[in-house]
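Quick illustration, no need to memorize.
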Amino acid sequence: MSYTELHADTQKLTMTPQGYTGYRKWRVSVGDIDDFIVWASRSNFPGYPKMRCVSVEMEGLTGGFERRGWTEYSEYVVTANYSSAPWLNEPPQENIEFSLETFETGEGRTWLNAGTTMDSSMTIQNPTLTRTISFVSESIPLTAILGAVGKVNYKTFQGFPPETLLFLGATTDTAYRWESGDYVYRITYRFCWKRYGWNIVWRQPRQAIDDTGMPATDPLTGDPIWVDGDAGIGAWDRPVPALYDTTYFEPLFGRAIPGGGGGGTSGPYQPFAKQPSFKLPSDPQPKIDWLKST
């Protein structure tokens, strides 16, 4: 093949937190353009074997003439773009986002010192945590994802107590491997944690009903009269039946369900090369192990 690499404007390399990107440029004669594009599309960036060619561009340089309805040139500038595609056995990546959800307490409480009824609802802040886990696999565990999305953990999972972790879903990116002719997938899972769990919600206080069937109020102060017992005070409570179904999250990572029950351990997933730990914002603060559940 007849070609010349344009060293004055080639082999540019860029590094970002997501990996490396770069390009190379050549001057190629029309007689060799087809074979050269095939070669370039299967090439690596020099010195970086994990940087594969992801696209090839060609631009006419000199001697353009009409042929078969399009313009053909005697020479072309060919640009190969490279990227460090995800590879198996890469350590997983984890991102944590802390936030607060707000809700109203209702009026079913009294002031400790004054002993009077609270005449207005109060806003309460409840901590939440969104956890994103990204890793690389040779296939997408579609069955496991469909079986877990919208559900909460049945047992303690990676340090999170039962029913406190909701699986929000997954996104995937695809990279093609030229040398093996197959694909790898970067899978990203999103979970959301709540301190009291997803099946525990704030229950508003219940106001008593008078003889006329209307909400009862104190005839002197006009304050609402709440029913006796726990129902008369706003508090965290559990609806029956539960709002969210429970499941095991182990199959999402190609691991068997604890104690049997499917999930399989022989799936296409590779063991994580790194096991980061994370502490929950609560007491006690458990250590999260990527590969352990109880």
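Residues 3-84 form one domain.
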